[in-house]
Specification:
three-stranded parallel sheet, 3 strands, 93 residues, alpha/beta, globular
């Protein structure tokens, strides 16, 4: 079965986690996230792995990613309250 192409079997909310980037600060996998958004435009897509700073969050927002897991960047102070406030109302629903 080609589960990666069977959108009818997918949940409406998806997390794309690039494990090699988790905690790395290399930035999110924008290419894979963009491809997933094109493949499943009606789904909510959340990014995980590699978040560096507010610039990454703005790039994800431009891709219409619904949110991001940012724990390492928050703990290290690379994403702060100002970054989160700036995008609070910008994330698509």
């Amino acid at each position: 079965m080609e589960l990666d192409r069977r959108l009818d079997l997918w949940l409406m909310g998806l997390i794309l986690m690039t494990l090699a980037r988790v905690g790395s600060g290399q930035g999110p996998d924008l290419d894979r996230l963009g491809a997933l958004r094109r493949l499943a435009p009606a789904h909510r897509v959340y990014a995980a792995g590699g978040m560096r700073d507010g610039t990454d969050l703005r790039q994800l927002n431009a891709l219409r990613v619904s949110g991001a897991l940012v724990s390492t960047a928050l703990h290290q102070g690379r994403i702060g309250p100002g970054d989160l406030a700036e995008l609070e109302d910008a994330w698509p629903t």
